[in-house]
Every structure is written in C-alpha cells, then in structure tokens.
Design a protein that fits this description.
15 strands; 655 residues; alpha/beta; 6-stranded antiparallel beta sheet
Length: 655
C-alpha cells in the first residue's frame, strides 16, 4: 500500500475532506459531477504529475473564493520485513503536501518542510511510483488515449511500469557510446587519412631533402676535383709551352742558316735572267695576241654551228616533224622567230667555212711563233725557274723566321701567364682540400657540375626544416595510427556491448510479453474475444513497439486502435491488457478513472471480477473511479461514495 489517507483543503469542489484508503481495490463511486475525478486529480497534483500542469493552471484548481489550496498524502512507510520503504524517514507515515496559491506560487512540503520537485521525485522513485506513466495513473479518457499512442510509446510505458527502463537505458547508453566511438573512429580515420596524405607529402620532401644533401656533397667533391683538375691542366699547359718554346728556337736557328745560303744563290740567278727577259717578253706578247684571235674565231665558229643545229631542230618542230616539247614557252617561240628571220638572210654554212679558213691561218702563225720562242723559252724557263725557286725559298725563309720569332715572343708570354695561373689555381685548389688524383678532364667535370647544379636548382625550395617537419608528422602519424587501432578495439567492444545489452533487453522484454500475452488471452477470452500481445521490430530498440491485437465476436485479431473497435471494445481490450500486466507492475499504487463508461454490463462485470482477482493476491493499492458500484461488493473492495451537496463535494460513505 502507498497512500493511507488523502487530505483535501479548498481543492476544486472540496472544502475539506479526509479520504482513507486501504490496501487492495479502492472504488470511488458517485453520480457525475460529484467530485470523483477531482480526488484522483488531487492525488496526481500531490505526486507532482506533469499531466495536470500541461492541461490547466494549478491556480485553477483552488476552490472558488479561496486564496490557497492544499493536498496532503499520508504515505505508508511501515517496515516491510526489516526495512522501511524510505529509510531516510524513521517513522511509519510520511506526509507529502502540495500547496497552491492564487498568485501562482506552488510548492511541495515533506514532513512540513519545504521540498523541491526533485526531492519528491527521488522519494517516489524509492517507492517505485512514476505518476506520469499512463499505465500507473490513468485519468479520464486516457483509456482512449492509450489506444492511439504509437507502438513505441506503449512499449516504453510498459517498460517503465514494470521497472525495465534500466535495460533500455543500458542499450541506449551502449548505442550512444558506440555512436560516439564510431564518430571518434571516423574522426580519427579522417585525421589519419589527412595525416597520411600530409606525411606522404613531407616524405616526398624529405626524400628531396636527402637527395639535395647528397647532391651538395657531390657538388663539393666535384668542386675539389675541378680545382685540382684545373691545376693538372695548367701544369700540362706549362709543360706544353716550354716544349713549344724549345722547338721554335731550334726551328729559328735552322731558318737563319738556310736564309744565308739562299741569298747568295739568288744573286747569281738574277743576272742570267735579265739577259733573256727582254727577248722572251716580245715573243710572249706576239703569241698572246695570236691566241686571243684564235679563241675568238673558235668561239664564233662554235656558236654558228650551235645555231645551225638549233635552227634545223626547231624548224622540224614547227613543221610537226620534230619533238613538240621543245616549244616550251611563248617567249622561247618569239625569240626563235626573231633569230630565225635574222639567220635566214645569211648563209650560216658559208659563215662557218670562212671562220675555219681564218683559224687555219692563225694556227700557222702560232706554229711559227712557237718555233721561234722554243729554244729561248727553254733557257728562260730554266733560269726563271731557278730564280723563282730561290726567291720563293728566300721569302718563305724570311716569313718563317718572322713567324717563328713572333711565336717565340708569344710563347714566352704564354709561359709566363701559364705559370702565374698555375700558382693561382694551386692556391685555390688547396682551399678545397688535399690534392687528389683526377681521372676526368675539366670539361667532363664542368658538365657534371652543370648537371648537378640543374638538379639542385630544381630542389631550391627544399629547406632544412623539412627534416624536422617529416619527423614531427611521422610521430603524429604513428600516434594517430595507434589511436585508430585503440578506437577500432573500442568500437568492437562497444559493438559487442550493444549486442549483449540488446540481447539482455530483448530477452527480458520478450519474456515479459510472453507471460503478459498468455494472461491477456485468458482475460480477453472471458469477453468472448481473442487477442495477442506482440513485440514488433525487436531488432531495433528505437523502432521496437508493443502491438495489442484483439478480435471480438469471432473476428480475426486486429491491432487495437481508435478506428477499428468500438468504444466498449477498446476499453475492454485495454483493461484486459492492464490487468494482464498488473502482476508485473512495480508501483504499489495504480489508478484508473471511469474505465467502464463504454462497457456493456457483461464486460463491466467480467473486468471487475478480473480486477478483484488480479489485485487480491498482489501487494498493491488500486484506485478505481466508476459512476456505479454495481459490479463491486463491499466484501471485496473498499468503497468510497462521493456526493456534491450545494457545490461542495463530501465523502458520504466509506465501507
């Protein structure tokens, strides 16, 4: 039992009333408007039910003409075995009061001490009472409201009524944890992916940095190799210059000796040549004139013969007997016509014959000239040849002497410069390091340096910070990878936890509904109906719902709702379900207002008997509000009769 007594002061139609309750069924009956429902409303207000606060202002519940109303519940706190329901209060009774004022101020009091709603809720939780659960306190029209609730809401109300909320909370908490873990895993996965991409970038940069370091090392070695290679090259230049200088000096000495001998020989030959020069020149001029005349005659004869041949060929082409391709262009044809007209007036053959005769005469004169100068020419040629050879030889010797002297001066300068350059290169090379053997030539080394510089230019954006960044991101990536592994393990654990808790919830709720279903079928059968209580969508706790099926008068069981069944059928099916659920409800107090208003007398009597039999052996307190007590007897229940006399509700009879 929860409530021993209810004390009303200026609450709605009650001026003052004390209503004692007993364990078992307490039936409040009386005519309409007598204040029956007000009594249940007063209990709900005192328990802090939010239903009332949503429907109307608490100040509207104060009796007309009064400034304040008070509802006090005397709760049973007697020992159950060795412990009290609420050990905090070491007494058999607990006074819970709700005060309402017209100015809108409301408060709770526990044992005449102001209390918060949270304190009241904790007290009721200790007693196992949830006043907001429709299956615990069902006001007027709530039977109808229950039928229109969603399957999910019905299941949640059942879980709250029988104390299975922890199972649902465990599942939801595990799902929330899993969702959080999945979100964390996704976040870590994105971070890991981003980190991997970043690391790949820095790895590429790090590889470039290592490549740059190697190239710089190679560049320094090449510079050293180039420096000593240049020294070796300069040494070879000095050696070559010294050898060239010695060679040119020997050449100069030899040329000077030859020049003296050639000068004496030339003087002797020049005196002989002067004697033959005059005669030879005269004959040479005569011969030259004859040869020119002969050449002109031969050229003219050849041209005439060529014209004669062309004239013959073109004449044949014009007359169609020759090759037409010879008439290449209009210009050529016009030129030919002009020549043809010109030549037509002369006899080409006769002209050619005249020139041949002239050539014959010229040839005769030339032959005579040749005979006259034959002997002179041989002598002159011999002496001239010797003179010319001597002069050429002497000129060449002088030219060679001048060149050799110039070359010697140049070689002296080059040797001096080469030695100076060699000293400078040795100093530079020593700065790069000790001397090394150089296999490649300077050109090859320079080519390799240019290639190396090209690679270094491509890596000019690579800085020394890259190594630090790469190490930093490598460490971060490994940390994220380890975190991803841990998150994956947590996800698997959370998933297993969800499955385990879901299975635990499904097991207990299915077990409960199986037992409720059997009891429901027994109760509904007494009203000549069939029905079932099923769990739907049990694989998803958020979509899972409670489905109540009922079929009257031989009909097939169909879902209980506000459209399929009549009002009496709905209330009968709903009360049958509530009664089937009663032995599992943890609350010591339950109430229902005018559940039988739409029932026919037979179903009203059946439900009343089932209610009595259900509550009889249960340690529970049941409050039933009905317009009539026909279905109950005083021996079975505690009957409270309410009447309204001149606007004031009074408790007329308690039996």
């Amino acid at each position: 039992m929860l409530i021993q007594e209810v004390i009303l002061e200026n609450f709605m139609s009650y001026e003052y009333a004390r209503v004692p309750f007993k364990s078992g069924i307490n039936v409040i009956c009386g005519p309409n408007g007598s204040g029956k429902s007000s009594l249940l409303l007063a209990i709900s207000v005192a328990l802090g039910q939010s239903y009332t606060e949503r429907s109307r202002k608490l100040s509207d519940l104060i009796r007309w003409g009064k400034d304040q109303a008070r509802v006090t519940l005397i709760l049973d706190n007697t020992k159950k075995g060795k412990r009290r329901p609420v050990p905090k209060f070491n007494k058999d009774q607990i006074f819970l009061t709700r005060v309402m004022r017209k100015d809108g101020k409301y408060w709770f009091a526990l044992e005449n001490r102001a209390a918060t709603k949270a304190e009241v809720e904790r007290l009721l939780a200790r007693l196992g009472v949830d006043p907001d659960n429709m299956l615990i306190i069902m006001h007027q029209n709530m039977v109808e409201q229950f039928t229109v609730r969603s399957l999910q809401e019905k299941l949640i109300m059942v879980e709250a009524a029988v104390g299975l909320e922890p199972y649902r909370r465990n599942v939801l908490q595990a799902q929330k944890k899993l969702t959080s873990t999945l979100s964390q895993e996704e976040s870590v996965s994105k971070l890991l992916e981003s980190s991997e991409q970043t690391l790949n970038y820095w790895r590429e940069q790090y590889d470039r940095y290592q490549e740059k370091k190697q190239l710089l090392t190679k560049r320094r070695f090449l510079e050293r190799e180039l420096a000593w290679g240049e020294v070796a090259r300069r040494e070879n230049i000095v050696k070559g210059s010294e050898a060239d200088r010695k060679k040119e000096q020997d050449t100069l000495n030899h040329i000077e000796n030859e020049t003296k001998a050639a000068s004496g020989q030339l003087q002797t030959q020049q005196s002989q040549l002067e004697k033959l020069k005059s005669e030879w020149k005269r004959l040479f001029d005569e011969r030259l004139s004859l040869e020119r005349e002969k050449a002109r005659s031969e050229s003219t004869t050849s041209l005439c013969e060529q014209l004669l041949r062309e004239t013959t060929i073109l004449d044949e082409a014009i007359q169609g007997r020759g090759n037409p391709s010879l008439l290449v262009s209009q210009g050529f044809e016009e030129t030919f016509s002009k020549r043809f007209k010109l030549l037509k007036s002369e006899n080409l053959k006769e002209l050619i014959q005249n020139f041949n005769q002239q050539l014959s005469k010229l040839n005769t004169k030339i032959s005579e000239n040749q005979k006259r100068v034959g002997s002179l020419e041989e002598d002159n040629e011999s002496v001239s040849s010797h003179v010319l050879d001597s002069r050429i030889k002497l000129a060449l010797l002088q030219y060679r002497e001048e060149n050799v002297k110039a070359e010697l001066e140049k070689l002296e300068r080059e040797l001096k410069d080469a030695k100076a350059y060699l000293d400078e290169e040795i100093k530079k090379a020593e700065q790069t390091g000790p001397r090394i053997a150089v296999i490649k030539n300077v050109g090859e080394i320079l080519d390799e340096i240019r290639v190396t510089d090209g690679h270094l230019a491509a890596l000019s954006d690579v800085s020394e910070d890259i190594e630090r960044m790469y190490e930093s991101y490598s460490k971060l990536y490994l940390e994220l990878k380890e975190k991803a592994r841990l998150v994956a393990e947590n996800r698997e654990k959370a998933l297993q936890e969800v499955k385990a808790r879901m299975q635990a919830w499904l097991t207990v709720i299915q077990s409960l509904l199986d037992r409720v279903n059997l009891q429901y079928q027994k109760i509904i059968a007494k009203s000549q109906a069939v029905g079932e209580v099923n769990l739907v969508d049990g694989h998803d706790i958020e979509a899972a719902g409670l489905e109540i099926l009922v079929g009257f008068k031989g009909g097939k069981p169909v879902p209980l709702n506000a459209y399929t069944q009549s009002g009496g059928e709905r209330t009968t099916a709903t009360m049958s379900f509530l009664l089937a659920l009663q032995q599992h409800v943890r609350s010591p107090f339950r109430a229902v207002d005018e559940y039988d208003i739409h029932m026919d007398p037979k179903n009203r009597e059946i439900i009343a008997k089932m209610l009595i039999s259900t509550v009889k052996d249960a340690n529970a307190q049941y409050l039933v509000i009905t317009p009539s007590q026909v279905t109950f007897t005083k021996d079975e229940v505690n009957i409270i009769t309410v009447q309204n006399i001149e606007g004031t509700s009074i408790i007329r009879e308690v039996a």
